[in-house]
Amino acid sequence: MKNEYDVIIVGGGPAGVAASLSCRRSNLEVLLIDKKPMEEIGDKVCGEAISKKTSHFVSEKLGIKPPSGNEINVLVEDLVLRTSLPMDHITLPAIGYMVDRHKYGQRLLHDTINLGTKVLDVTKVIKPILENNKVSGVIVKNSAGEEVEYFAKIVIDCSGVMGVIRTKLPDEFEPILSKSLTKSDYASCYREIIQLKEEHGLDGKIVLQYEEDIPEPGYIWFFSDGKYKLNCGTGFIKEGNNQNKSVKKVYFDTMEKYYPKGSYETLDGRGGIVSIRPPLWNAVAPGFIVAGDAAFHADPLTAEGHGPALIAGYFAGLVAKKAIEQNNYTTEKLWEYNKLIISNFGAEHARSRILTITLERIGPRNLEFLLKRGVVKQSDLTSKGIMKKRSIFNYLMLALRCFPKYSLLLLMKKAIDTSKSVAKHCLEYPNSPAEYRDWQIKMDLYYSKIHGK
Ligand SMILES: Cc1cc2nc3c(=O)[nH]c(=O)nc-3n(C[C@H](O)[C@H](O)[C@H](O)COP(=O)(O)OP(=O)(O)OC[C@H]3O[C@@H](n4cnc5c(N)ncnc54)[C@H](O)[C@@H]3O)c2cc1C
């Protein structure tokens, strides 16, 4: 096998396959490396709910089939946010599919192989190779345990939350690329697929059930995967008081309230991690692009990361192609990738994070109070609702309904104002790395304010 390519892609999840398809559509020579055996690539602990809009958008761009046939388990219509009351409090449209991730992932992998991508499986990428202050390849450990070097004009890190290349770059290399991974960046999860003895009645719904006893982001999910089947799980940030809490124990304790032991059979139960923060504001460096979970591209509220990973991979391929055509691998040249991410889904996710922090600060009991009194309505949680202009009269009415919990109203006002500011700031994303630092400092300030720091 040769050891020089146009592009090396680390990881064969949705971000990696999309990046490889995108590069192959431009006839670039691509090597995709994954530590798993070929037949296991694409399998992952996941809620398996994906948006129709996103998966169809990317399929069209990449010239592949959207999810179909036995890749789809059931259709999804609604995202429901519930507190402990047994009713659907907030229902937002969420048209999509519950997919079989393994089958869908395998098909995407074979789509890219058929298009000419070379795949190196059972090969663990260990670290980047740096030459002349540019990422110029990777060092891998192959199935025989030998270390081998592979070189490329561009390396795309699609290795999932751990970001194996990004986190191993030296601090001094491209100072505006974050190389850190902290506990607050991700939630540790436990997920099961269960077969119930009776119908669950949640057809077409993916439910986030907020619970007082589950730490941030605070919910257990129940995704309908068929009349008797549910994909359910929970997860939280394991830091501070929660660092020694067992995710599995929290999951089983909560399940007892809704689906007690004996009412179902577990078909699959596994742990995983999901990113839970705003996207990496800068995801490029000389010769290097980060995409998917490795760049925190999942939606911090719903954990929907499959679609964003596909989109990010597609954009990474487009930007890599332009850089290779012009033989220019600088951060400046790759900067366009950041703008594409922010304008496509990054700004939405940035605001989604404000919402998750706010919901956590309000807590399920107060949320129930706000919903019952009509202080928060379904429409308020949509982009339009948050951006809506409110008059003094509106606020007076809300204040009356909020009696005696005025502090909640102040918290909500702060959240809405911050969300608007973040949206506006995303629109002002810098055109070049030179203006980035000031922009980033301002963005960090918005988040520290909403955290109450
Ligand atoms: C519990 C849970 C529930 C979720 N629910 C949903 C949901 O309902 N809907 C949704 O859209 N998203 C969901 N997500 C998120 C979604 O799974 C991810 O956002 C998505 O898989 C990200 O794709 P990716 O390609 O970036 O990374 P991954 O899918 O993680 O793929 C990374 C790939 O890199 C490979 N790799 C890692 N390290 C190395 C290495 N050192 N060398 C070589 N290869 C390596 C891995 O083997 C893997 O194949 C969920 C995640 C979790 C954990």
Give the tags:
16 strands, alpha/beta, eight-stranded mixed beta sheet, 453 residues, binds flavin-adenine dinucleotide, D-Amino Acid Oxidase, Chain A, domain 2, FAD/NAD(P)-binding domain, 36% helix, 3 domains
The pLDDT mean sits at 91
Q: What's the architecture of the largest domain in CATH terms?
A: 3-Layer(bba) Sandwich
Order of helices and strands: EHEEHEEHEEEEEEEEHEEEHHHHHHH
Low-confidence stretches: none
What is the makeup of the main sheet?
Answer: 8 strands, mixed
The CATH C-level class name of the largest domain:
Alpha Beta
How many strands? 16
| Ends distance | 53 Å
Associated small molecules: flavin-adenine dinucleotide
Looking at CATH, the homologous superfamily of the largest domain is: FAD/NAD(P)-binding domain
The helical percent reads: 25-40%
Please report the number of helical segments.
Answer: 11
Radius of gyration (Å): 22 Å
* Percent strand: 15-25%
| CATH fold annotation of the largest domain | FAD/NAD(P)-binding domain
Shape: globular
Compute the number of structural domains: 3
The structure class reads alpha/beta
Please explain how this structure is put together:
The structure is a single chain. The protein is an alpha/beta fold. It has helices at residues 14-25, 52-62, 101-114, 247-258, 306-325, 331-334, 336-372, 383-387, 392-402, 406-427, 436-450, and strands at 4-10, 30-33, 49-51, 72-82, 90-99, 118-120, 124-131, 134-141, 147-157, 186-196, 205-210, 219-224, 229-236, 264-275, 284-285, 288-290. It folds into three domains: 4-78 and 99-183 and 279-343, FAD/NAD(P)-binding domain; 185-275, D-Amino Acid Oxidase, Chain A, domain 2 (2-Layer Sandwich), CATH 3.30.9.10; 348-450, no CATH class. The chain is 36% helix and 25% strand. Helix 1 (14-25) links the parallel strand 1 and strand 2. Helix 7 packs antiparallel against helix 10. The N and C termini lie far apart (53 Å). The model has no long low-confidence stretch (mean pLDDT 91). The chain binds flavin-adenine dinucleotide. Flavin-adenine dinucleotide (FAD) binds next to helix 1, strand 3, strand 7, strand 10 and strand 13. The site of flavin-adenine dinucleotide has 42 residues, from helix 1, strand 3, strand 7, strand 10 and strand 13.
